[in-house]
Batch of 4 targets.
Target 1
Amino acid sequence: MADVIEAGAARDSAPPPSGPTSRRRATQRGNRATPYLFLAPYLVLFGVFGLAPILFGVWISLHQWDLQLPNRPFIGFDNYQDLFSSDSAIYGDWWSSVRATGIFTLFSVPLLVVIPLGLALLLNRSFPGRTFFRAAFFAPYVLGVAVIGLLWRFLLDANLGLVNLLLGAVGLPSDTPWVTDVPWAWVSLVGVTVWWTCGFNAVIYLAGLQDIPPELYEAAKVDGAGGWDRFRHVTIPGLRPVVLFVLTTTILASANVFGQALLITQGAPGEQTRTVVWRIVDEGLRDYDAGRAAAMSVFFALMLAVVSVVNFRLFRYRED
Amino acid sequence: MSKLRPVARYAALILITLIFVTPLVWMLLTSVKTYDVAQQDPPSWLPNPFSTYGYDQILNNTANPVLRWFLNSMLAATLHTLLVLVTASMAAYALARMRFRGRGLLFALIVGTLFLPPTSLIIPNFIIAERINWIDTLTVVVVPGAASAFGVFFLRQFFLSIPAELEEAAVLDGANQWQIFRQVLLPLSKPALATLAVLSFLTNWNDFLWPVYVLFSPERLTLPAGLGLLQGAYVTDYPVIMAGAMLASVPVLILFVFAQRHVIQGVSRSGLKG
């Protein structure tokens, strides 16, 4: 995403030849207050529901903030300490949810980075029916998590589900407990998520593939590079910013997994598939301990920020 | 790259399409089965006899007013989309076309929130919504999510790609900024506005986590939030549950069919090229 932003910034500072004059003229007309008037409606929304919650969240996390009690004493970093001390009441549940989210992310991200690339390569060339296939792959993504959750809960039902029926029809075991036991619950959650979202990533890869200049492939061909060599030396380097984008957004999305676990495995077996986001909203909005939930949120956001920074570093490093 | 022959390519594509589409077809078929046919082991593919039982149940049920949820969702998603379009386009215009103090910082702040996991704001946003008495209202599913950093970023990038010369004629005619924005820039931006409209509608229509926690009264729920109740009420009565899922899917699938090209191009461009 940083590349995107930089591209935007670069375009800003280097407008087309006639740009500077017309831009200067554009700023001179109208009132000094005009830009702020245009921004005002958005800034009210953004201030109240975008910026304020960030600061407010940190503030809440430093308090013992029970939603049902009027007194919210300041307690410093106690809520954070509770996340790390094994004798606190929430320690076990919290780290179990971190583990659940970790497992899900670890398995879903590589699949969601690699499989969509394969789909995009299949669709990259122009051929009859391409639009149809592209739409078919993308279609599940337009459905909400509530729909795909209910649908797959049904499909994965051990007795009535289509999945076990089809497996039985080809002579495989037809009694797999897809939603009630591990590791099957993980296979289900990851599999459904890949099915649901991989069309989205494939579309982004497709756009990236179309931006690679065809001359590079021609030149590689002239140099005698085979299909695999061209893939390794032209496609992959050409896609690097796209892969970084897909990787970063997919990690963010996977780490936020909630609806699938709530609706498909319902946390089973035990609490093993209860994820971080689920734990945060339960802690805050069901058990009313907003302080702890806010501390969990801040910690969670920081963890993801670190992951994103590491991502960018790794990709930058390899570019040199 | 790979030298897949056409036959192999089509075979692969058709197989993959089956994987993507079969679950959706199963949802449709189950929604028009009778309870008994849906319970058969082994299950039957065809809804024989064809039945409107699932739809009858959800549409005539007073405990779970599904039709009401549908209308709530429709109203919320429409208002949300309008709010995003108006606020984001105005802000994006200022950020793309005007010079003013704080512009760089403001844009950086807006883009910075794109990196933040949205769920990390849910607790403070809940408390803010509670303080202004928005919990369990339509407003709470329309407004907070409309602070769309993505919308501003996306439209700003699009506006930057429109040559400023096109506005010059309007200036010579004595148009003010608002007239230029309304009569020159917005008409030129229809594809981008349409893309953002579809994406905003999809996001709001499908939102699950927020409505589940901020709406309580059965008659105020949105469809995704209500589907959970439906599942609780009908447990394994799959024709009913799948009929509910169909009701939540059909509007966005129709929207997708009509706007397919725009949505897909919008998605790919928004991320990478602006």
Target 2
Amino acid sequence: MTNFLQLCFAGVAIGALYALVALGFVVIYKATGVINFAQGGLVLLGCYLTYNIHQTWGVPFYLSILLAMVACALFGAAIERFVLRWMVGQPTFAVLMLTIGLLSIIDPAVTAVWGFDRLNLGDPWGIEVLKSGEVVFAVKDIWTIVLAAVVLLAFFLFFRYSSMGVAMRATAFDQEAAIAQGISARRVFALSWAIAGAVATLAGVMLAAGAGGVRPDIQYIALIAFPAIILGGLDSPAGAVVGGIIIGLTQTLTAGYQPEYAPWLGNGFNGVMPYLVMIVILMVRPYGLFGTPEVRRV
Amino acid sequence: MRLRNLNMTRDYADDLKLFRTRQSKASIVAVLALALLLPVLLPDDFWLSVLVYAGIFAIGAIGLNLLSGYTGQVSLGHAFFMACGAYTTMMLGTRHELPLPVWLLASAVVGGLVGGIVGPFALRLRGNYLAVISLGLVFLGQHVFENWESLTGGPGGNGSTAPLSLGFLDFNALAVGGRAYTRNQSFFWLVWALVFLSLLIAKNIVRSRPGRAMQAIRDRDVAAQVIGVSLGRYKVGAFVVSSALAAMAGALFATYQQFIAPDSFNLFLSIQFVFMIIVGGIGTVFGSVIGALFAGLLPALVSKYGGSIPFIEQQPGAGGLTVFQVNQIAFGVLIILFLILEPRGLAAVWLRIKAYFRAWPFSY
């Protein structure tokens, strides 16, 4: 039982990480209809920037997260302004391939600057733990869960109450009608990429904090957020969080029980379990648990 | 004067011709002759092996272009289908020593079957979701192949030496008319013969009814359905053909390299295929070959002449970018530049040059 609780907590914590990455995907998809394969690259860039500002330049940790968020937001907005702006009116598969091209650039560029070594982020949480009975809670994991909840709440308030959030929803719903109402679609697009960059930095920091370390394969961890958003539905922030947590739980429970009960599935099966869940979900519910089914009219 | 040499379409039969002008017939003959003579004229092992890899990738790229370029379904799963072909060859060719036609065909059939199983997902999902699903396929495939140690040798990889003789022709060391040729020369002929075969198959698909159906699906699937195109049939069909070609490329890849490890079939390989069809030309059959040649020659040039480019590291660990990083960045940058500046790729550039000289010296 203790083992089970422990695995569940770990699952929720990892799930919160996936949720943070997934929220970045969702905000771009919601506003611009682009599935952004480069999100993992933004996550990678965000955590390396934080590392650089904190460890190399000696800025206090929380301030350096903030600075990295701003820098990554600007980078996201710049991608939108200088690369994606040219693709307006092109078919979506072309835009998708373009983000694949971006991913292929960001990853080697980051490793060229910072190398392949595992670096210490220098976060204040380290490997501290809290104990409740037999179950151990890593402080970093608690922070991750709180942060995911805060970001989700912020998204909810932003999209519901702020005029810019409403403008973004309107643009996503019908671009032309939104422009006719005086909403600047360009600003909406740039802002959504900026938000995605800022959220990606948070995700990157939490992925690299604690025992993990700053390392290039963080972007592959970020790719597991894909099953999470597919599960939750591409256009739903709440779905991203629920999807992330379900994926995190399946992953840790698989890691905990599969070697004992189903060893024939091979070593490291928990690494590919999310993709399996995603394929099964897509067979049953193509638009995810909370996604909007696409209406097709002639 | 009969304007026979101009590319003029007078009826449907003209539109469906394989070779629409005399020049295109002549140029095909010229290219075939060049392909036949090239290994003799250029017996350099480095460049021959670059061209052999380019040919292998061209077969896969033709497949991906049928799926993405003509049917509009973006797939990142091409590396997985290549792996299917490579491991079918390892099973039948290396282990059971079945002859060349058997393992080559079996690889294509297995690839097509796996494509046919995955295909219905493509039917259920529209374009963009497929890219995500196929991304999952790459990771699932790598897991399966890394754990199927008896066949694949686990993460460390396994030797792959399938038999290469076809009747009196042995493609390991071809000997024709008393002259002996090297392995690279022999392989060049084998691979490029298969490239031409794949080109012929693809060209015949796209110029006939299925091709028109696929393009209708790409351009507007709802409209295609309304005019009576069966989405299921053609999407799954495109998937099957594309995976079969990828698997055939994988079979040749494994056999030429004589060794494969599961992690050669990674996400970057799939991205390379996307690169080939974008740079070569989305929705043109011969563009896939141009793209594959480009994708093969670019890393070769970087690795051969990288020493004279300042920011590339000369020895490992000496700082600067590694050759692999340079390739990855170059591929990414070119994908973006081509999508923005020339979405129809090098094929369109070529057609423009041809159109310019057709009416030369008049500009129109």
Target 3
Amino acid sequence: MSTANRETPPPAAGRAGMKKELPEHFKDYRHVWVFIELERGQVHPVSFELLGEGRKLADKLGVELAGVVLGPPGEATWHAVAEAFAYGADLAYIIEDPLLAHYRNEPFTRAMTDLLNTYKPEILLLGATILGRDLAGSTATTLLTGLTADCTELDVDADGSLAATRPTFGGSLLCTIYTINYRPQMATVRPRVMAMPQRVDKPVGRVIQHKLAMAEEEVVTKILGFLPDSQSAKANLAYANVVVAGGLGLGAVENLQLVRNLASAIGAEYGCSRPLVQKGWMPADRQIGQTGKTIRPKLYIAAGISGAIQHRVGVEGADLIVAINTDPNAPIFDFVHLGIVTDAIRFLPALTEAFTRRLSPHNRDKLAS
Amino acid sequence: MHIVICIKQVPDSAQIRVHPVTNTIMRQGVPTIINPYDLFALEEALRLRDAHGGEVTVLTMGPPMAEDALRKALTYGADRAVLLTDRYFAGSDTLATSFALSQAITKVGETFGTPDIVFTGKQTIDGDTAQVGPGIAKRLDLLQLTYVAKIASIDLDVREITVERRSEGGMQMLKSRLPCLITMLEGTNEIRRGSLDDALRAARSQIVKWSAADAGIEDLAKCGLRGSPTVVKRVFAPTARAEKAAQIDTTDKTLRDLADELIAAILTRQPALEHELPFDGAA
Ligand SMILES: Cc1cc2nc3c(=O)[nH]c(=O)nc-3n(C[C@H](O)[C@H](O)[C@H](O)COP(=O)(O)OP(=O)(O)OC[C@H]3O[C@@H](n4cnc5c(N)ncnc54)[C@H](O)[C@@H]3O)c2cc1C
């Protein structure tokens, strides 16, 4: 992805980079790898989403799909390996080492680059999470290979190269990027952009164990502590099945209660557009969109949201999008499935009430408690 | 203490329009700004300088007009600005960008004093990759501390730094060593207004302008398109959804009826939601 300004025409010599004759020493790079992100004993679900996508790429290329598990010695690490098989990996590369108990850039970059240099995959996919981005950037630079961030679509070309499509300019445009002449081809994908694959019942796969060539003394950065986000207050928007969100059209911070009320009536998560975070009306982890969360719920209800491109890219994966907006020409009506042109401030309470009427008494009690 | 901060001039992406026929970005009239994420890093750099003494050098790679962004950074209180500009940099991807910037940082170090900390923003709003910071760190063999929410302490004598860093599910407290590269998280502070003195100084300041050669970059093959392993093959607009949204007709209906109608329409389209939403089935 170009980060420089492209207004000046590139020097003619630069076009030589487009030539697609893979240097000899890259020709034996084969297979698709997915980094299985493991932190505090938990596999990040984005790893499974990537295994689903990696499976398709591997099948098209006629190669194997591998998961890469870096973790401390013990059960959690092996559980991650089993999970990788359950979501489609043919084999797993695993490095067990106490240095990999908690994420630090130095040992993880070393582990990853060692594996890549030793086993030479064609493609490496990572989640565009905090950890994934930290690791991907330093790994790609160490190997001096290409890395395409935040892809929304992955495919392989007729000639076998990875075609990585990502939004650019805040989502106004998409671009397809190739890594020419270098291996591995690396890409990151945000959580919830790819669909979750089916879990296999009796997973099997080969395990290849590797050692970390590093000692604690070589790692400069030390972890002094970890402060978990308090579980209760934390929004799990990305993985919610139903999401209700409010935008600037709600007019005042008090009216956000209407969104929260609807959400709690139907057991949904709630979120918002960016201006509400900027105004301090909602915390940043509730923001949906390009610079917030990507969501993929079965139902998304947007109230008083205009549907700017930066918001759109975060919600497009929803199965059913419903918009409530007073302006029939609001851009949101260009991409939602169901629209209703009405005042959200008046309509949200009616909708909450109508939903509540349909709830079974049992569920009503459960949600109220 | 010498702090170098890398910033980028970006088009204000909220105001970008795409040409309906050619699918290219229409830049005319689109204002440029300092990448908003970089301002958090800049403010942090200024605070550290104010607390510990020293200088803040702001550095950007870009076209000549990127000078505006640097001058703006000077009005906030940066001490010196360096513009790395050369047609050889055009078309740089993140790897080539990190190469050019790291070379320029080395030159800045030789010219104005070795940096103790290199700052970047978390990511840019046009490229959005969050890769240039880690790339620079690797190129310069600096320790990398990304997504830093807070610099808890710096001890210049023993050259130690402790930071709070955002990670999945919580905050990591890390102790590391100087020099290091920090990418700053958003929302960590608020950029200062800048004093009148700074504004006057910024207006008068000479911005240091370096070409690739000035910055001591010998290997031009590592710059621009040639130095970029990734190549943009195709740029296109997202496809519009074929069918328009089905509109619920609101004429002559009570809110209550409208709400029931909307719920019915939702369930017709997504019957599976019956199980997702805690209904008892009967309306
Ligand atoms: C770099 C960058 C990143 C960004 N990232 C994001 C992001 O991640 N997420 C995001 O959401 N935005 C993002 N934005 C901002 C985005 O461009 C829009 O500005 C934002 O989404 C608009 O929010 P909104 O729809 O709530 O407000 P507005 O655009 O002000 O729209 C309000 C809407 O409410 C309607 N309305 C008014 N009154 C009522 C009423 N009583 N009932 C019903 N409807 C009513 C209006 O018709 C209007 O359509 C980003 C912008 C930039 C530059």
Target 4
Amino acid sequence: MRMIKNKAGRLVPLYVNGIKQIPFKGVDKYKPKGRKAAPAIPSCVDFPEAENKLVKNLKKALELSGLKDGMTISTHHHLRNGDMVTNYLFDVIHSMGIKNIRWFPSASFPCHEHLIKYLEDGTIHHIEGSLNGPLGKYASTGKMEGTGVLRSHGGRYQAIQDGEVHIDIAIIAAPSADKFGNANGLYGKSACGGLGFALADSIYADKVIIVTDNLVDFPCVPWQISGNNVDYVVVVDSIGDPAKIVSGTTEITKSPDRLLIAEYVAEFMDAARILKDGFSFQAGAGGTSLAFIPFIKEKMKQKNIKARFVRGGSTKYLVEMLEEGLTDYILDGQTFDLEGVRSMRENPKHIMTSPFTSYNFHGKGNFASMVDAVVLGATEVDLNFNANVVTHSDGMLLHGIGGWQNCLYAGCTILAVPSFRDRIPVIVDEVTTLCGPGDLIDAVITERGIAVNPARKDLIKKVKKSSLPLRSIADIQEEVYEICGRPAKPKLDKRKVVAVVKWVDGTLLDSVYKAAE
Amino acid sequence: MYGDEIEKLIRTISSFYELTGAEIEIEDYGALPYTIAARFETAYKRIFVHETKEFLLPIKKGLITPTSKDRIRRSRLYLPGNEPKFHINAGLHKPDGIILDLEDSVHPSEKDSARILVRNALRAVNFYGAEKMVRINQLPLGFEDLKSIVPHNVHVILIPKCESKETVIKVNEVINAVKKEKNIRYDIYLMPIIESALGVVNAYEIATASKNICALTIGLEDYTADIGVQRTEAGLESFYARSVIVNAAKAAGVQAIDSVYSDVGNTEGLYKSCLESKALGFEGKGCIHPRQIKITHKAFAPSPPEIEKAKLIVEAFNEARRKSQSVISIGSKMIDPPVVKRALKILESEKQN
């Protein structure tokens, strides 16, 4: 495999799955030219009388869509680990004897372990999307036929819009839909909140199939997905397992160390003068990115201020903020629990957003860049503040990028991470896989202290008089090495690239190598 | 990531015990070297029961810290002795003291394992300046604990279910013997825990049983069980016992430290309970969760009028010293030395808050 060193100093392949690549050129340095991609022009005369797009089953819909070997099929992760549509879809594709599919999910989950057999028998050629859990392990050990391509949520939209990925057939699981193909995630037994991740697919794919377990009379409102873009509608018994779609009880961590980090995050945001009337922040659904919210709320109440908007990952904690008047709006990219779903259904100030508005590199601006502060996690961060979210220190692919890369553009990007996990240091000399350039990461907050990126002199000036435990990142690393010892280098086979990490602009940021099993 | 290092450690310990030809299986869940060494030593000693040699890793730098009899002890965090995952970051939550517990939080079948782990933890874990305490088991099992931990920089020994001065004296005999044998010079202080009706009756004789007693404390779970009542939020059932403890401690010139507040989720209840303890004369409280520490410190912090008064007293004291006067006074009011000492303590604790 021919490799080239990119601007970040990482070796990346010239070709991936036979397609020529552009190496990373630096943050905001690469701007593609030309016009956006577009699907073929449809005609309404091709659609049946009374616009009834119902077909009897998914196999029929795939046949009518002209499914062939080697096509690109997209699915979406709003049903999260409760998704039953994708597994069923590939059962059907397999039964039709189709091979070499490029699967283009917005994310994958452990429930998709079912698909390993289709990777093995050649039904699926490779995955372009997050490689987590069992699929990550499968790909990491070099078993996938093609090379995985990892993109952020925004990067996925960039690839669709500039034609890098042309979707032949998009399959959109919909908790509610009508026969015309209007669909939303707000109602029905499989309600999941917003369907924003499927929006670009519905517009740019050649064929769009809605799969629902809750067919309602026309019109299905609000139509998060517009029936104008839909070719076929299929009704099944169940699209997902409700208990796994929304956890119902997204709870804040009880770990005292995580809570300490969360407390530092809130104090840091205060010291950095981010907490002022009309500010905004983005929260997630896991670990510390949720746990800092109660600390922030307490400070907001003390200061008698409110946020103009919060972005999420909506959970009951953000919904409480909205309902208590601590924020004017929730701009929701993904709805994590039942309270989030309820709020989006009932509250006009809880707005569904999509990667078009939030993250898109080919947009005329995006929301992620407008947020005052974002709190993110990472598996590793190095002495230059470069960070990794996709692989563990042993080189194994275990997480997707999600919106993480896109969120780095916030006014203040905070990585809230433990200084080590199960003896494995999080602060390393060099990240195993580069996912986010250190230029965009402003502070690393651990339970052992806070390191501000030396390039952010303005930020340092603001926080240095606080009582926060400010340290250099090397100083924290040294202490962790004192506790854990220095870890060995991961055993990677540098001759075999199993996946590549794209930057938000579509250039190649890094390679993921085959790891020892 | 640490496979090679773990193997090296196991080989070192094996050769220390002259163990050869053994098949050793290690499951790695991210334990630190001090834990791996302790677990291996335990496994070895369970097979070779007469083995007495201790495998000690070198003591980590910066871990030998001084303490003093009257240092501030607002909070002391209980850590189950046999759960290393709770040890590592305990000091980050800034308790005044940590207690590595060998008693109630350790299953009877794991006492050997916990003793070795706690010994290693005292030498390997940085508690970031917290006073290092160990709660030993009731005697005679506690004697084994003492032999194991006394040589490894423990600051305070907590004596559970203490009912008489004889227990204190016996504990001290073992401590002194071990200190003599190992040529140890640092002071080790004692904190007897009164947990029974009889203990309450004998509180004063316990508090005065030895010069190295730094504090008297009470364990309310066992005390309420002993007198046959339920522990309540209001705590009326233990009011007498707690008052006796405070009074005995103050009469003996040692600190009075309150029991733990067990409802971890109830931060408001904890704060109220600490204020009440402080009002009764206690100087600190036990904590069973790191999130209780900050609240406890806040509650035991001196109030603004207390701080103002202490500042005036210390100023008068300094003034008198400058003028080489033997009598300290504010206006026409004379100040006794203990009052000055208390004022200095208040200002010190204000600084720590």
